[in-house]
Structure formats: C-alpha cells, structure tokens
Amino acid sequence: TQLLEQSPQFLSIQEGENLTVYCNSSSVFSSLQWYRQEPGEGPVLLVTVVTGGEVKKLKRLTFQFGDARKDSSLHITAAQPGDTGLYLCAGDFNDYKLSFGAGTTVTVRA
Amino acid sequence: EAGVTQSPTHLIKTRGQQATLRCSPISGHTSVYWYQQALGLGLQFLLWYDEGEERNRGNFPPRFSGRQFPNYSSELNVNALELEDSALYLCASSLRRTSGTYEQYFGPGTRLTVT
Fold it and tell me: Block means of pLDDT (10 residues each) for chain B, length 115 residues?
C-alpha cells in the first residue's frame, strides 16, 4: 500500500520554465527524502527534510516540508534538460524503512 | 569514497530457477536494504538487514530471502523464480539507526529478467 501520493505523475516543460512536484501523506513523517533516478540506475539522494516548515535549497532546487510534516514539495527554477528524470519522495514513518511515492517523471525539452 | 555496489548488473534466469544478487554497502554503513522496482509499480521495500540480522521485511513471499555477512555485505536470494519477479532490484545502505533520521544511499541495481 502506497502511503505517499506524488503529483503530477508526468511533467513536460520547456527549458527555462519552472516546475513543482508535490508529495502528500495522511500520516506524519519523521523525515522525508527526495531522490532523482535516471533510467536503469539507482535513485540518487537530493535532500532530507526533518523539521516542519523547513526549506532547503540546492542550487535551482527548493525543497519545502509542510508545517505538519505530512507534505513536501520540490520546486525547480529555470529547468534545464539535465533536470530530466524520475523524482521520488520517500517518507520515513518511524518504521525502519522508507515508503516511496510512485514518482514524477520530469522531461525538460531543449 | 566508494558508493554502494551491486552485482551482477544484469541477470537472466528461467522460471523456476534461483537468483542470487549481491550488494556491498558504503564503508561504515551497517544497514542494508533491498527494494524491488518493477515496471509501473514503484519501489517496494523487500528486506532490511543490520548487524547480520533481518530487522524488517516487506510484503513479499518467503521465497525472497537474504542474509548479511560479517563485513556488512548482503545477498538477496529469490527462489522458484516467476515471470513477475522481473524487475530492477536495488540495494541501499545507511548508518545504523539509533534515533532521529537516517539517509539511504542506493546502488545502481541489478536488472533481473525471468523468461
């Protein structure tokens, strides 16, 4: 059973545009991680958020953790073709495993 | 520092056979996790090993099993392979969790194809 919902499932934008990916749950996360995965490879950890209301920036990527620790968003400013990939959120519900969302496939067209 | 490594990269088996997948964690990490990523189904948690013991198990049948060795490397065994076992099998490692958050780092995966 998926405890995390990601939206949208697919996102196709032009280079230079902005995009936002959402991750929601009905349960409280003890922490949440965002990964990016390219075809045939393992997910690469982008960021971990722990504190409600936390905002982290990684170059053109901004990650927010909701105040209630039930939702998170990933915003990419001025997207580039190199940002293309599958973005996954993974929640730690304090049960010693990560529960993954289904992922958002992002395509940035040159 | 070397990341998580997995072998083999690709594995082709026929239905009913057994498959063995291997994983070496990042140096200093004692926990190893296994996930299955089947097409269209996302990452599903399989197993967690820490300090040589199985600590948690996902909703998979007993023919999925594994072990962790004293050097913290791990093996995933899949017996009586079925066509639907075809997937990318990912291994991740982390520091031992005592409290607070932990971060998992993934290997490149083993692509298992069952024919």
Answer: 92 98 95 92 90 91 97 97 97 79 89 97
